[in-house]
Amino acid sequence: MVAGRTLCGGRPAAAREAAARGSARGFSIVKAVRAAGARLAIAFIALTMLMPADNYEGRRISLIQFDPPGQPLPPAELNSLLPFKVGDALRMADVSAAIQRLYATGRYADVAVDASPAGDGVALRFITQPNYFIGGVTVEGAPDPPNAGQLVTAAKLPLGGEFSDNDLRQAIENMQNRLRENGFFRAEISDRVARDTTFDQALIHFAVQPGRRARFGGVAIEGRPEAPASALIRASGWRRFLGLGWQPVTENRVQNGLEKIRAYYQKHDRLMARVTISRMAYNEATNRVTPTLLVEAGPVVTVRTRGARVSRGKLKQLLPIYQEHSVDRSLLVEGQRNLTEYFQSQGYFDTEVDVQDLPVESNREIIEYTIERDGRHKLAELTISGNRYFDDKTIRERMYIAPASFVRFRYGRYSRRYLDKDVDAIKDLYRSNGFRDVQIKTEVIDNYRGRKGEIAVKIYIDEGPQWLVNQVELAGVAESDRARLMEVIRSVPGQPYSEFNVAADRDNILSYFFNNGYPSASLDWSQAPAAAPYRMNLTFTITPGERRFVRDVVINGLKHTNPALVSERIDFGPGDPLSQAQIADAQRRLYDLGVFAKVQTAIQNPDGQEQAKRVLYDIEEARRWSTNVGFGAELGRIGGSLYSFDAPAGAAGFAPRISGGVSRLNFLGLGHTLSLQTRWSTLQQRALFSYFAPQFQGHERLNLTFTALYDNSRDVRTFAARRLEGSVQLSQRLSRANTIQYRFTYRDVFVDPNSLKITAQLIPILSQSVRVGLLSTAFIQDRRDDPTNAHKGVYNTVDLAYAARPFGSETSFGRLMLRDATYHPITRDLTFARSTIFGWIDRTGGLPDIPLPERIFSGGSSSHRGFPDNQAGPRDLVTGFPLGGTALLMNSFELRFPLIGDNVAGVLFHDAGNVYSSLRNISFRYHQRDIQDFDYMVQAFGFGIRYRTPIGPIRVDLALAPNSPRFVGFVGNQQTLLTCSAPGSATRCESSPQRINIFQFHFSLGQAF
């Protein structure tokens, strides 16, 4: 520099030190460098014989410039950080303060100030070097395992964090380690960093050339294994079956092998065995890895019980020494407690268990549990008294102990520990509702009512006074926020006072401020008794801190996706308050599209003291192609063969099923999905092509679906039909519970004449192939607490459709389907469920009757369990096969209750109803008038078992239908039927009386409704 000299750079404290040590005729240059993520100020003193620095002190500032002109902060914010302006007198302390403030924003890696004479004043030039922040990390060429996502995680480059070359080198080393753990010892990683000056971000790309994955090349064993090496190698699974070479090295395979070796020792009662890998020796020439196992087998541990017999399998389940592969006092004591609770759950409430760890002899350690149990007891009664604020039902819902009940808890569920935990739970309930002084006493009565072995538990509750909130003061908040805050807090005047509610209010208040741009908001609260008794005054003191705003929304990672698809789902932008809730909600909407594998979000420069922050979204697109395949079967009364007239009411059968499909995600980058799903079974062959557009036109509540269907099915044993169908549906979510669907369907249904099992005079009426154009709408209301296993709530559907010639239909009819289901919890474990289904089809023109494929067929596991699938309703009077109907009315009741433990439940059910020939023929009669009468209400009673699984209960239902329909079944073949049933034929059709089996069984997944 010629015209002037650098006054200072870096932090002001360092600048002042340098100036103090320098010559009176000189000045200081202070640089700041960032190493390993921390700021380190290093002072350099440069002496000069030019104008002394103190000659600038007090002179008027005539010009302020920044070099380069494009700064990482907006001009307005930049100028607000300077404690001086043009025209002010220059003070070196102010220059140091300015540098300090610029550094505090986190946007600068280096700042220096240059001063030069300008007339009778001084010109200041700030020379800056900006920081860059991580905007995204991508990996190309990942071998899997580890996949690209695992390598990105291993790199440890946080989104939005400050970027440095040192971090980049460490990231490569981290990824190399992860690759070596998965057998890639020859991997090479190259990096490319694209610096985006617009958003001050570094986009980091790693290219991986993994080379060949190494294989295991043997196993070295050190220590005291006390087992043959061949047995340990065989247990590890690292060598292929029958010695056919060694497996490739992966991290999971290494860890699984260690676990298998530990399991080998545990199987041989060496619970204290220690198996670790001390090193992985890699041979560059052969590309083989030889792990060295350090094995300490430890003594043989024998666990035995005295006083009561416990199976080995139950001991392994109850004693943590088996799970932890270790023997220490804490684990033994925990096992002691588990055994005590196990026997108490079996009715031995007075069980005492002692444990003794005998000295090791001859490399054998014996652990002995001594079990002392008196006679078996039964918790006959549990009573609660003194409670006025809460009823017994509310309190029992929070208790674990339970009196004896049939099947589920034969002896009840009780122990002293359980009782103490229940007392604490009841106290927490009362205290959270203002009863600060609640007291609870318990009494356990043995030989209750003179019956030996029966006990009763009595709980006495002294609620005490209820403390209420007298007044609430919100200090430190603006009036505009006060009304909104009063809406989100529970502790308002007149409500119960409790520290539980205050803690919830604290979270709600802070969430309000965090979501309105105050990320550093803090809160203190205090309490003071009011003048009135049992009243409390509350004061919340809020310190909002400085408000932050959104500067930009930056989206990275898109390759095939239209950027507008993402930006439309981000409902905030520059100038809006920085809201974590809005940021997370936009992230959720992006995930809901179903086309992104990962959506990361972060604040750029999170620790920097700047007014406006950039919000980053780093998006990883999911694979655009996916496939699926599945195997299954249908088991039940599914009828005889396709062309046989045997078993018109269905016979026990088995139908294997194979399904498969392929999907194309994010079609044309619009977030839409194309899919083809197929199914093949002996009852049905189907191909469904669909085009799904979620959040249609950017509206989160709208979904648009186009479908094309080919279906060849014979699930109704009366006929086989081939259906070609196309439809378009717009689904609108009105609220969380309510959805409405608008649909147009056009289909062409062909009935195979060779499959018909109806009399000749009905063939021209019912079996014609038909084209149907159908306009429909459906309303769905779902307020169930759990769609797969509801205990409370309602589920209602209304489906209204109309087929007419203007829609391209050859026949005209209207169709209405209604369903109403309610779920009522009687107790915590007892639920009453009810479902009513009504359906009606009314012909308005076209064909003389509703064709077979369009008629109502019902019955089976999801409607009426007194029938096999699709076997309800009218039947052919000669063949006995179902014809379907034009009206439907069915009602089901279920009483759902726990049966065995927590995973097996039982159901008592009653199904009533039928498919009717017409609306006017709906009848509540319980008896069949004659063998040609099918318009009556069939009753079915039964019992079901439900086994809970993560995807819903597995269901088995056994039903008894005492008034199941009787009918006439045809004896012969199709040619005989056509001859004998033809009009004017002299040949009589041979038939035999039949009946739908009064016993039915159904096996499926999920509740019946």
Which helices and strands, and how do they pair?
Blueprint: E1 5-9, H1 12-21, E2 27-35, E3 38-46, E4 61-67, H2 75-81, H3 92-104, E5 108-118, E6 121-130, E7 133-140, H4 148-155, H5 165-181, E8 188-196, E9 201-209, E10 215-216, E11 220-224, H6 229-236, H7 251-267, E12 274-283, E13 288-296, E14 300-306, H8 312-318, H9 320-324, H10 329-345, E15 352-357, E16 364-372, E17 378-385, H11 392-396, H12 416-431, E18 439-446, E19 454-462, E20 468-475, H13 479-488, H14 499-514, E21 522-529, E22 535-543, E23 549-556, H15 563-567, H16 580-592, E24 596-603, E25 612-621, E26 625-637, E27 652-667, E28 672-681, E29 684-693, E30 702-713, E31 721-733, E32 738-751, H17 763-766, E33 770-782, E34 793-803, E35 812-825, E36 831-845, E37 887-900, E38 904-916, E39 938-947, E40 954-960, E41 966-970, H18 974-980, E42 991-995, E43 999-1005
Parallel strand pairs: 4-6, 7-9, 10-13, 11-13, 14-16, 17-19, 20-22, 23-25
Antiparallel strand pairs: 1-5, 2-3, 5-6, 8-9, 12-13, 15-16, 18-19, 21-22, 24-25, 26-27, 27-28, 28-29, 29-30, 30-31, 31-32, 32-33, 33-34, 34-35, 35-36, 36-37, 37-38, 38-39, 39-40, 40-43, 41-42
Helix pairs in contact: 1-3, 4-5, 6-7
